[in-house]
Design a protein that fits this description.
By secondary structure, the chain is an alpha+beta fold. It has 4 helices and 10 strands.
Length: 148
């Protein structure tokens, strides 16, 4: 079975409305930002490594979450549908990735790029990747087993 970037985006969108639960991994019941990535890939038949050994709330001085993610994903430069986006909690400085999202649409004339992510107090949502999010963006990753 071929899994496409559009499949990953659709699986992420299917999680919209799931409440925020730290380290949760149950669609419709509760998840966190890393759980969105795990649940979307599982829904597409990709068995992705899931390391629950990270702090909540995230420790901006720790690189553990980013290191665990980099060990299983391929780093990329450009944005793109179906890619995992890694964000820093700080606009300035070299803080590591502490928040993840899945890009669900590309920017084109008259439309900004969008992403699905999960935040405390808000749950899983699809939002525009606006200027603030772009300033916080630290990395983009390709998922293993996905055709881009």
């Amino acid at each position: 079975m071929t899994v496409t970037a559009a499949d990953i985006a659709a699986a992420a969108r299917a999680l919209v409305g799931t409440p925020f639960v730290p380290k949760g991994r149950v669609a419709g019941v509760g998840t966190d930002c890393k759980g969105v990535m795990i649940l979307a890939t599982r829904a597409c038949g990709i068995a992705m490594h899931d390391d629950l050994d990270y702090a909540f709330p995230p420790d901006p001085e720790s690189a553990a979450l980013e290191a665990a993610t980099r060990a299983h994903l391929t780093m990329r430069i450009r944005l793109g549908v179906g890619r995992v986006l890694g964000f820093s909690p700080c606009l300035h400085g070299e803080k590591g990735v502490q928040h993840f999202a899945i890009q669900t649409s590309d920017a084109h004339p008259g439309c900004e790029a969008r992403m699905v992510h999960c935040r405390s107090g808000r749950g899983v949502r699809e939002e525009t990747i606006d200027r603030t999010w772009l300033q916080l963006l630290r990395a983009t990753y390709r998922l293993p087993g996905v055709t881009y």
